[in-house]
Each structure stands twice: as structure tokens, then as C-alpha cells.
């Protein structure tokens, strides 16, 4: 985890850099605070840097951290961190997942982004599927209004739930595959059910029962 206050020289110079090291359990084990980091000849060099250990055996021990900083981060990664995350390309996301590029967001963000590249075109088909009942309606039947309402609510519901699940996937609350595909699969089933229901024919109208007649008993 890296943060910095200022960038200059085409992202080859960083000011007030803070570097947090984590172990495989994602627990922070140390922090490096550097006045400056410069990128030359394919590597970063820290100056005015101090390392503070937070491991149990060396708690709060301080040492100089000036010198070469071993990291896969490049100036291009620094510039990418300044770009809105929604503009990240599929190639860049795959490199992050493969460990070939430094991420500037949690890993589930990139995994969900990759899944959405393939799920989004399918989502357009689902929208068409949800709208198909509108082309099969018999406008002389008063029950058409109900099916039209189902189509409209289905489309709005799909946009809402699919967007919500995708956001949950991007933030790592649910698995990336679930966030990217669950809404699409759910509303595909709903759309197919509505088409099948209309294709099976209209439900017969309820015929009102005739009122019961009460016959008065003749006086004896």
C-alpha cells in the first residue's frame, strides 16, 4: 500500500511518500515515510526515509530506509492511479490480477471489472428479453396493461439490482462472478417466464357468479 502527496516530472518524482508493508494475512507489519522517491534507470530510490517496524519482535524499532525501493510500481502506474477507475482497460485489469501491474484499488475491483466486460453485452440481451412482452400484447384485452407493467418494472428492476450487485462485487462484499452475473441470470429467468406465460395463452377471465336468488316461501 502506497500513498503520496505530490507528483512531478511525469510521475518520476513523488513527494511525502508513505509505504505500508503487509504480510500474507494482510496485516500491516511496517511503515516507511520518505520525503521523496525518484525513478531512475528502472528503479525507485528513496531519500529522507525512515522505517518503523510494527512486528511483535521489533515493535516500534526505527531504521533508515534510504536507498533502492524494491517494487513493481512504475511511473505509468502512478499516472493510472490518478485516472478514474471506471476507465481502466481490460488489458490493465488482467495485468493487475496476474500480478504484472501495481493496483490502485482492491483486487476484487479488477476481477469484477473483467467479468463485467463479458456480462455487459449479455445484459443488453436481457433488456430486450424483458421488453419483448410489449410486442406480443393484445391491446384489445384489458389484461395487457398488467403485462406491460411487468415489462416496465422488470427493466427498471434489472437496472437497479444489476447495478447494486456489481457495486457489491467491486467493493469485495460478494464474489466478483456473483456481482457481475447474478442479476443477469435472475432477470433472464424472469424474462423467459413472462414470455412463456404469454405464449401459453391468456388466463381465462373470471366469470362473475350469478347472484343467488332467494325464493320466498308461500304462506300455508
Task: Briefly summarize what is shown.
This protein has 220 residues and is of the alpha+beta class.
What does this structure look like?
By secondary structure, this protein is α+β, with helices and mostly antiparallel strands. It folds into two domains: 81 residues, no CATH class; 93 residues, no CATH class. The protein has five helices and seven strands; from the N terminus they run E-E-E-E-E-E-E-H-H-H-H-H. Strands 1, 2, 3, 4, 5, 6 and 7 form a seven-stranded antiparallel beta sheet that branches. It is elongated, with a radius of gyration of 31 Å. The N and C termini lie far apart (102 Å). The relative contact order is 0.08. The model has no long low-confidence stretch (mean pLDDT 82).
Features:
about 220 residues; 2 domains; seven-stranded antiparallel sheet
What is the fold's blueprint, element by element?
Blueprint: E1 2-3, E2 6-8, E3 13-22, E4 28-40, E5 43-53, E6 62-64, E7 67-69, H1 75-81, H2 90-97, H3 107-131, H4 144-170, H5 176-199
Antiparallel strand pairs: 1-3, 2-3, 3-4, 4-5, 5-6, 5-7
Helix pairs in contact: 2-3, 3-4, 3-5, 4-5
Along the chain, the helix and strand elements come as EEEEEEEHHHHH
Terminal CA distance: 102 Å
Q: In total, how many beta strands?
A: 7
With helices defined by DSSP (H or I, 4 residues minimum), what is the helix count? 5
Overall pLDDT metric: 82
| Unreliably modeled segments | none
Proportion of β residues? 15-25%
Integer tally of domains? 2
Describe the sheet with the most strands: 7 strands, antiparallel
Please state the CA-atom Rg, rounded to the nearest Å. Answer: 31 Å
Q: Which structural class do the helices and strands define?
A: alpha+beta
Shape: elongated
Amino acid at each position: 500500500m502506497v500513498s503520496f502527496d505530490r507528483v512531478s516530472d511525469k510521475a518520476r518524482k513523488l513527494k511525502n511518500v508513505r509505504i505500508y508493508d503487509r504480510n500474507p494475512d494482510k496485516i500491516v507489519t511496517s511503515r516507511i515515510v520518505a520525503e521523496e522517491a525518484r525513478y531512475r534507470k528502472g528503479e525507485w530510490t528513496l531519500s529522507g526515509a525512515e522505517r518503523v517496524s510494527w512486528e511483535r519482535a521489533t515493535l516500534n524499532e526505527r531504521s533508515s530506509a534510504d536507498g533502492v525501493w524494491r517494487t513493481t510500481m512504475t511511473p505509468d502506474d502512478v499516472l493510472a492511479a490518478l485516472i478514474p477507475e471506471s476507465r481502466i482497460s481490460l488489458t490493465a485489469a488482467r495485468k493487475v490480477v496476474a500480478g504484472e501491474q501495481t493496483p490502485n484499488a482492491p483486487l476484487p475491483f479488477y476481477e469484477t471489472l473483467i467479468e463485467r466486460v463479458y456480462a455487459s453485452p449479455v445484459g443488453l440481451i436481457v433488456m430486450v428479453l424483458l421488453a419483448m412482452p410489449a410486442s406480443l400484447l393484445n391491446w384489445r384485452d384489458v389484461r395487457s396493461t398488467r403485462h406491460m407493467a411487468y415489462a416496465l418494472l422488470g427493466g427498471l428492476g434489472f437496472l437497479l439490482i444489476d447495478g447494486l450487485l456489481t457495486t457489491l462485487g467491486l467493493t469485495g462484499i460478494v464474489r466478483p462472478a456473483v456481482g457481475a452475473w447474478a442479476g443477469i441470470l435472475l432477470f433472464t429467468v424472469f424474462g423467459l417466464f413472462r414470455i412463456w406465460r404469454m405464449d401459453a395463452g391468456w388466463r381465462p377471465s373470471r366469470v362473475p357468479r350469478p347472484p343467488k336468488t332467494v325464493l320466498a316461501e308461500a304462506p300455508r
